[in-house]
Amino acid sequence: MPIRYLFKQLLLPPGGLLLLLLVGWWLRRRAPRLAAGCFVAGFGGLWLMSLPVTVEWAARQVETEPALARSDWARAGQLAQAIVVLGAGREQADPGWGSDQPSHIALERLRYASRLAKSTGLPILASGGLHYGEPPSEALLAAEALQRDFSTQTRWLEERSRTTWENAVESAEILKAAGVERVLLVTSASHMPRARWCFEQVGLQVIPAPMGFLGVPNGRPFGGWLPESKAIWQNGALLNEAAGLLLYPLLYP
């Protein structure tokens, strides 16, 4: 995990863009033109990543699965046999709560999964292993939050996965043992194409239930052309999904 995490953070923006700026500074005397190119690419990339309008455009390229309309919830509930909600990290040792908590993205997913469960009556599987190798698992935190904050029971916990591919592999093992082959899959809209591909690769039929769409009008003053720190994080997450869509078919044929 540490090596994979290190390379991921160094190569994907903003890490990769900061490296370009560092290379540009290092080459400023040896190769001024190349140094200028590295600086322009690094600075320009950071500027684009800081724009909400870039988030909106990039999300529309990645968020290819449409939302599940409220009018279709009942039909989806009849077709599916279970709801699978994927983890999204955790906040460690939050002093306000006195314990680890699901991340804000994970909570968005759990809220949506709870609403679907109450509407359809389907059981929930929470998927997510140890965050950086330390307990508790994301799945356990999800189950606790579903019960405590949304009054929703979780039937199955998948606590061994570390990646989206492992989410699918480990969840499929649990679900198939329970006779489940068709699932409502809950995750962020940008994550859904990669997640759906993984779950279908392991033999499950998927009804996508994406949420947390970013490819909507940003509502910012000046149309989202002013830099924001939040946009850098959002664009980084979208680039991670784009890279995953390209690499997963090569890594997990």
From TrEMBL:
InterPro entries: Cell_Envelope_Assoc, DUF218, Rossmann-like_a/b/a_fold. Residues 81-244 form the DUF218 domain. CDD domains: YdcF-like (cd06259). The keyword Transmembrane helix applies. Keywords: Membrane, Transmembrane, Transmembrane helix. The chain crosses the membrane at residues 6-27, 34-55. One of its GO terms (biological process) is peptidoglycan metabolic process. It holds the Pfam family DUF218. GO terms for cellular component: plasma membrane. This is YdcF family protein.
